Amino acid sequence: MESIILTEKNFSKLKELVKQYNEKKIIFYSNDDDLNRKVMEKLPIKVLLIPLDERKDFMKQRNSGFNEVLAKIAKKEGIKIGIDLDEIICSQNKERILSRLKQNIDLCKRNKLFMEFFSIKEKRNLILLKSLGLVLGMPTWMTKNLELN
Known about the structure:
Elements: E1 3-6, H1 11-20, E2 25-29, H2 33-42, E3 47-49, H3 68-77, E4 80-84, H4 85-90, H5 94-111, E5 115-118, H6 126-136, H7 140-144
Parallel strand pairs: 1-2, 2-3, 3-4, 4-5
Helix pairs in contact: 2-3
């Protein structure tokens, strides 16, 4: 199935784009937490791709852009959570991104959600990605179903 990444910030325009690309696998990419929640609740997307590099952490906790509420919505709607490999490889703040990613993996593990790797620039072997997932704390049931797009 062909996939398309949508990054629109206006919900009404995004709604029209989703109708237009109804046959394709829709991946939504946004920094806005409120828009992420609204899109997950109301639009038929397949994958939520959360950028981890541009976020600012709180005083006592990490801000990964994914929380329990979004995890429950994703479980109910059957939405996978995306991991951007290009962001991890090309970033200067790898330690922050990996810690936020580990937090998201723990939330997905707790709520029995599946994850998916995305890479446009840096193509990697699926076996290497599964081993990265195991190192970051993914359970084996999650790594068996990992995909690379």
